[in-house]
Amino acid sequence: MTGVSELLAVSRYEFRMQARKRSLWLVTLLLGGLFVAMQGDQGPRYLPADTPPAEVMTTWAVLFGIVVPLGFGMVLADRLVRDRRLRTAALLESLPVGPGRLLAGKYLGGLAASALPVFLLMLVAGGYESVSRGDPLLLGWAVLAFAVVMLPGLVFVAGFALVCPLVLSAPLFRVLFVGYWFWGNMLGSEILPSLTGTLLTPIGGYPASWLTGEWQMYAGMPGWLSFLRPEPDGIAALSSVLLLVLFGLLPVLVAGIVLGRRRRTAV
Fold first, then answer.
1. What is the pTM of this model?
2. What is the pLDDT of residues 185-219, one digit of tens each?
3. Three-state secondary structure readout of 98-110
4. Measured between alpha carbons, how far is 201 from 208 in angstroms, rounded to an integer?
5. CA distance to 117, 177, 182, 196, 199, per residue, from 232 (Å)
6. Percent composition of the chain: helix, strand, coil (DSSP 3-state, to 5)
7. What's the pLDDT at 77?
């Protein structure tokens, strides 16, 4: 079995197991539905009829991106901890799969399964807008907005949600994660130094600004770390996507190296 096939096998197993979790679907759909309802007549459903399709679906992506990743991170937080609690970690480590590939497979499978209901939310929103506005291209914009605006933030959240509970415990991580989410995504820097409005804001202000050609909320807000708050454009959007993905992969990479050294030391 090659390294790639091992990685794919672990990813498929992890995807199937994670996708069966009712809590994943309930939390995602409940958060998304409630947040849409809370918008009242200010939500993307009430954008003018002549609003460009890119702006319509990007607005939906930003709206879902404000709250849905909270449930995403909460669900993933106990994934590796659960292996220890159920005493299956030792069994998994005995398999002829390196700890790095095992962790990477869990990450990729868990990310894909946890992102699936988020993707379906965007498809539902795209279908609704396609029917109400009479423009089938809105479904395509829904897919693009998910991939460009939401997915990099989910990649970012998944890396920390999977690995950090191994050190902090899942309950403590969840508490800290909620605090970080509101501090690092919605708290203006004029109140407290924050990552809000930087290239590292997972809500996706910079990619959203690039898609619509307009300044989106939480992109380039004034504050500290000015080098992370450039004017929104294509380069800034690409930089934001790459930074979010790289920072999301970083904890997985570090954890894989540590677990690999532990296995070699044990042997």
1. 0.89
2. 887 766 678 888 889 999 988 999 888 877 665 67
3. CHHHHHHHHHHHH
4. 12
5. 29, 27, 22, 14, 10
6. 75, 0, 25
7. 86
